[in-house]
Recover the amino acids of this structure.
């Protein structure tokens, strides 16, 4: 069970079956975490379980599980599991509008991504930090984070991720009253959605 965390995590998330995911991952979390390999598996299971709780809206449980997973990941030096647990912890804080508490988790996640040259992880962390900066009113910093994330996703031709970045960036421009920039983002996102059959993009209709 623990060895297949990644595939099952994706399955439950994409299918919208987080409740089943919690039932699925809990037995792996309850296993003994003695030894480096078991610590790594236990950390990965906690990252998956915390994500399921986050998706269910149970942010306090998700946060506690993510924090315990991060401790295990640090003990066994599993940096990918550590990245995921830090991201989940930050997301649980963000979901409760606890921006100041969320920021250090995303900053650590970004540092891991950069140190290990993990492009997708860097982009995700930058996007998360952009959300924090926007909600704290630091617009220029948010714009910088969003723009960097978009550039990474473009470079790696991750079209669905590009569309998500364009939507986020467009929303920020809209919040600032920059209608031309917002419209440009939304129109490009819509074109990419149609070209690559990405069905979750919804353009902002108030762009003029």
């Amino acid at each position: 069970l623990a060895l297949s965390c990644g595939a099952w995590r994706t399955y439950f998330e994409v299918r919208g079956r987080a409740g089943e995911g919690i039932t699925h991952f809990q037995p792996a979390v309850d296993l003994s975490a003695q030894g480096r390999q078991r610590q790594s598996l236990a950390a990965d299971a906690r990252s998956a379980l915390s994500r399921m709780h986050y998706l269910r809206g149970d942010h306090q449980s998700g946060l506690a599980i993510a924090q315990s997973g991060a401790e295990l990941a640090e003990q066994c030096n599993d940096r990918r599991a550590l990245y995921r647990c830090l991201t989940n912890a930050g997301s649980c804080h963000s979901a409760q509008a606890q921006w100041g508490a969320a920021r250090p988790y995303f900053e650590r996640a970004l540092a891991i991504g950069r140190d290990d040259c993990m492009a997708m992880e860097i982009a995700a962390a930058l996007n998360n930090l952009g959300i924090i900066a926007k909600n704290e009113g630091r617009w220029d910093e948010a714009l910088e984070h969003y723009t960097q994330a978009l550039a990474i996703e473009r470079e790696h031709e991750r079209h669905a991720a590009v569309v998500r970045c364009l939507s986020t960036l467009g929303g920020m421009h809209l919040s600032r009253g920059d209608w031309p920039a917002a419209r440009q983002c939304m129109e490009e996102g819509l074109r990419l959605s149609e070209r690559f059959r990405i069905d979750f993009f919804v353009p902002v209709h108030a762009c003029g």
Q: What stands out?
A: Confidence is low (pLDDT under 50) at residues 203-208.
